[in-house]
Design goal:
The protein has about 250 residues and is an alpha+beta fold. It has a single domain (about 25-245), classed as TULIP domain (Bactericidal permeability-increasing protein, domain 1). It has helices spanning about 1-20, 35-55, 195-205, 210-235, 240-245; strands at about 70-80, 80-90, 100-105, 110-130, 135-165, 165-170, 175-180, 185. Strands 1, 2, 3, 4, 5, 6, 7 and 8 form an eight-stranded antiparallel beta sheet that branches. A hairpin with a 2-residue loop joins strand 4 (about 110-130) and strand 5 (about 135-165). Helix 3 (about 195-205) crosses helix 4 (about 210-235). The structure holds 2-acetamido-2-deoxy-beta-D-glucopyranose (2 copies). One 2-acetamido-2-deoxy-beta-D-glucopyranose binds near residues 21, 234, 237 and 238. One 2-acetamido-2-deoxy-beta-D-glucopyranose binds near residues 105 and 157. Belongs to the TO family. One of its GO terms (biological process) is circadian rhythm.
């Protein structure tokens, strides 16, 4: 009896080991000889988009959901002039991204995307103590807001490496640059909840949003780069380069 159990255990172990998802089944593959490689990749990403939203790429392959996107911490500190931290941020809308342009190069495994996102809506918590122009603004509480027509340039560069005699790829930290179009932010409880000062503070921030966003966006870009690089590397971790871009 013991022996059978051990054998079954071993068999299960072997079965589960070999059923490790390689590429998620929902990803359509592009041949490396595809004349319009960029178009093929764009289509493949489009098909994957609803799955990226939920994070369930197939029944076994689960990555962090894009909808809503959860960011845990964006911190910004520049001397005494600008100290801000945003936590528990929940963003709706990122999965509706539109790829405007892609330049893919398989020789040096670089993928440069330009995407636009029609609307992002966020809620979260903030703590800040900043000086914009000459006005001191401080507070701590809930926040919400929206970004419209955001545009991002995403540079992805992967390195090839060998594992069990096959070539695999791993991405370096993505380089993400974001431009925000129309935007709105509402910080509740500014100045300990003083309603008049709170209104003035919010109005001031919104009227000078380029100055405010210029301080925030680098932290946001870094945070997004870390999340997306990690997800991309999970997706490519167990799929060889030949499986991803077959030579046929
Ligand atoms: C990759 O190759 C393309 C085409 O030759 C070139 O334009 C691009 O600058 C290269 N990128 C890197 C990071 O080497
Ligand atoms: C890749 O395979 C290893 C075992 O071979 C496994 O531990 C790991 O979870 C797999 N990665 C993904 C993202 O499936």
């Amino acid at each position: 009896m013991k022996k059978i159990e051990v054998t079954i255990g071993l068999l299960l172990l072997i079965l589960t080991q070999s059923s490790y998802a390689k590429l998620p089944k929902s990803i359509s593959i592009c041949s490396r000889n595809e004349v319009k490689l960029s178009d093929c990749i764009i289509n493949s990403v489009k098909e994957l988009q609803p799955k990226l939203a939920s994070g369930r790429l197939d029944d076994e392959f689960i990555v962090p959901a894009l909808e809503p996107l959860m960011l845990d911490n964006i911190k910004m500190e520049r001397g005494q002039e600008f100290k801000a931290s945003f936590t528990n941020i929940n963003v709706k809308g990122p999965s509706n991204f539109i790829i405007e342009k892609l330049r893919a190069n398989l020789d040096n495994t670089t993928f440069d995307f330009i995407i636009t996102i029609p609307k992002l809506e966020f809620v979260g918590k903030y703590t800040l103590k900043i000086k914009i122009l000459l006005l001191d603004i401080s507070g701590k509480g809930d926040m919400d807001g929206s970004f419209e027509n955001s545009r991002a340039r995403v540079k992805m560069q992967a390195k090839k490496y060998q594992k069990n005699g096959e070539t695999y790829i791993k991405f370096d930290l993505f380089n993400i640059k974001i431009q925000v179009g129309k935007n709105k932010i509402n910080l509740k409880n500014l100045f300990n909840g003083d309603p008049n000062l709170g209104r003035i503070g919010n109005q001031f921030i919104n009227e000078n949003s380029e100055l405010f966003l210029a301080e925030i966006i680098p932290g946001l870009e870094k945070n997004l780069a870390e999340i997306f690089t990690k997800t991309a590397n999970e997706i490519v971790e167990n799929a060889s380069f030949d499986e991803m871009f077959p030579n046929n």
